[in-house]
Amino acid sequence: MTRTDSRLTLALASLTILLGGCATIQSASTPAIGPQSSWEEIRSTPGLIPLAPQIFFGTRGVSVTDLCVTGDTLRVTAGDRTALEKPSAGIPRDYQVGVGRVVGDAETSHIRILFYKPFTVPPCKQP
Fold first, then answer.
1. What are the extents of the domains in the chain?
2. Per-residue pLDDT for 24 more than 70?
């Protein structure tokens, strides 16, 4: 080991001691957001967009991720607090939902699908 190598090693060791717990290195084993993530994690991650199919209640399209099911009825509460219901007969409860991110600039932007995640319409919570 040369004198320069020794100084470099000493400098790195000192920096490591000085920084202590302040420096954080994300290891390769730290999971990123992906198909293994919960829907809550996905929804709370800025920039991610679930691209779920929509079910129509009359003229209103509602994402399947906003629905719940009770018995044979699909339910949702719209943004204006209108309760919408529809018979669930013939409507699947299990979906593969794409999760994407907007990429590009103002003229060429598009959504790039990053992964697909299974989604099952959950039972409605009892009041």
1. 30-120
2. no
